[in-house]
Design a protein that fits this description.
Elements: H1 3-12, H2 20-37, H3 45-55, H4 67-75, E1 80-81, E2 84-92, E3 95-101
Antiparallel strand pairs: 1-2, 2-3
Helix pairs in contact: 1-2, 1-4, 2-3
Length: about 110
Amino acid sequence: FGHTMAHAIEKCQTYAGETHGHAVAIGMQAITEASERKGLTQPGTSARLKKLLEAFDLPVRMPDLPMEDLLCAMRMDKKNIRDTLHLVILDKIGHCRIIEETPAFFLH
């Protein structure tokens, strides 16, 4: 959960920016916001997750990186098979599932 975006952030920052744990927290928030926008996650889940992550002093905002660079990095992810990513999303807090999507899933 959160690792696909985390690995893309780390790659785009040439492993000299966010720590792995911080990148995962950002990835968790990013995928939950995207899945909630698409109606795959219970409304309000991303707000609850953000509050929890911030309570542990973890980052939730995407670093200033071009989205196209992040999408390109995701296309090289080990979980990418023929431009299809296997993403862990929350249906709601405590319940997750794996979906197949393209990197464009993260676009608004």
